[in-house]
Write a structure and sequence with these properties.
203 residues; alpha/beta; 7 helices
């Protein structure tokens, strides 16, 4: 029998969101009976004739619609763009009309994460706006519980709405120990809820 999978979907320019995605996947893998599938979305260009290779040069494979339909839970991550997700992530989500119409994701849990170059660059509102399309898809939104002590001690990223990362003006600040712990906790929390909702609890 195939192990239920949670899709960790991200877009990353400087690598921070990609690192966060891997940490969230690590947290997912800590829950027995659940596994992760890490995928990315292709960049988009103002040159509409420009196309991307079928397989990325590096990083995770590009997401396919079946990855979305088959998952028992979803984590999406994007850099902060003026209080919203990146155009690349929004472009992909805008293509899920068929998934919305069929109700494939109704009742499945979802969570969000982000990275920004400044401490007050709109991380929390970005996380909130990333939730909106997931709500339209009928998903159950999960965050990071305040039982995670790093929410009380972090001086970089965090938030109960989902993990955030302070990347610095050059986008190259390392992910802090608190941010790492919160990413892992977020993945573990999502997986535990997905497992219960999918009725995959150990008998």
């Amino acid at each position: 029998m195939k192990t239920p999978e949670i899709l960790v979907l991200y877009y990353s320019r400087n690598g921070s969101v990609q690192q966060m995605a891997k940490l969230i996947a690590r947290g997912i893998e800590m829950v027995p009976g659940v596994t992760s599938r890490v995928r990315t979305v292709p960049p988009i260009s103002t040159n509409i004739e420009k196309t991307e290779a079928t397989i990325p040069v590096d990083g995770s494979p590009y997401v396919e619609l079946d990855d979305v339909r088959d998952c028992i839970g979803l984590a999406i991550g994007s850099p902060t763009r003026f209080g919203n997700m990146s155009a690349a992530m929004k472009h992909f989500l805008d293509q899920l009309g068929g998934v919305w119409h069929s109700g494939d994701l109704v009742g499945r849990p979802a969570t969000v994460f982000t990275s920004a170059s400044s401490m007050h660059g709109g991380q929390e509102i970005t996380l909130a706006t990333m939730m909106f399309p997931l709500i339209h898809l009928g998903m159950v939104i999960t965050g990071v519980p305040y039982t995670e002590r790093e929410l009380h001690t972090t001086v970089t990223g965090g938030t109960p709405y989902g993990t955030s990362h302070f990347a610095g003006s050059d986008g190259n600040l390392p992910i802090s120990s608190e941010e790492k712990a919160l990413c892992i906790a977020q993945g573990r929390h999502l997986a535990s809820i997905a497992k219960k909702l999918n009725n995959t609890e150990d008998k």
